[in-house]
Design brief:
2 domains; five-stranded parallel sheet; 12 helices; EC 3.5.1.44; cytoplasm
Length: 371
Amino acid sequence: MLSPLAIPASPASRHKTVVIADDSVVVRGLFARWLGEAGNFHVVAVAGDGETAVAHATRFKPDVMVLDLDMPGVDGVAALPQILKESPNTGVLLAATLNERNTRLALECMTRGAMDVVSKPDSRSGMTLSLDFRSEFLLKLGNIVHTPVKPGSLPPEIDTDLPHTGPVNLRPLVSVMPRYLVIGASTGGPRAVAKVLFDIGEGLNDLTTVVVQHMPPLFTASFAEQVANHIGVPAREPFDGERLMRGTVYIAPGGRHLGIDRRLGHIVARIGDEPPVNFCRPAVDVLFGDAARHLGPAALGLVLTGMGSDGTDGAGALRKAGAAVIAQNEPSSTIWGMPGSVVRARHASSIIALDEIGASIRCLVRGVQPA
């Protein structure tokens, strides 16, 4: 039985190749040492600027690149599209000290192909001494290349050998069309969420959309602003007790759970600081569980790319409540952890490629079964 973080051992897969691009010699050396100690990684080159990073991507075609945003000359933001053009199979982990400016830039990069971001401590001593930062760095790098790392403990996963017979058709929609769209996503999610919402287009005016994207607190307000600019409808973090309205996208605030409640006959946002669920806060299972309880078949669940199994139990609750659940398919997912978990647990009503999800939801909103 294989964990999603472990792949069959083979000469080609024992060591994933890494390029480290950072203008600090100390940071490059520290990352290289951590990767050497973690196992399963081989640092093939380092770069102190974006131009050199692009050259290394062209030459080595690494499995993953650690890319600093702030570098002299060509910075990480400008280098990213060139890196992905020269080596499209390279997973990019952004590494930056996240102030307001860098948060916006990191989100922009993630919508353009970077897979994840790790926030560097403000001081050199903080970076050197922080075990939490080291663990987060190695875990996110391992997630990107589907490779286990030695230090620290990883979240438990569900049995990945559960058989499944393939896609299951969406249950027939007789009189109840979805009026609420609840979305869960993690690694690779910013780009996927933005694309799905853009592709739904005018159909969003007939939906109340609530999104849990695994993100740190600094990111979610900027992500909501970016989504609003991209899709042309209001998007924001809700406040506790806010009445949820059609034609608006609500993004879970980073570090806090976002659920749904019914108060005085209205559907409202429920913001909470309860302990993490599935090692996550916000957690998709919290949102989906509340949606099943208060919305029933009026909800449509969507599980997009992401590591882990958050959303699996909530998807099961949605199905039991009569709601449909769409899972992103494996080829179009950055990491098929969350949607794959839903599929293996047989909670998915349909498994759809990212490029086709928006059109499918438009059909459902009109009461038409997708082709």
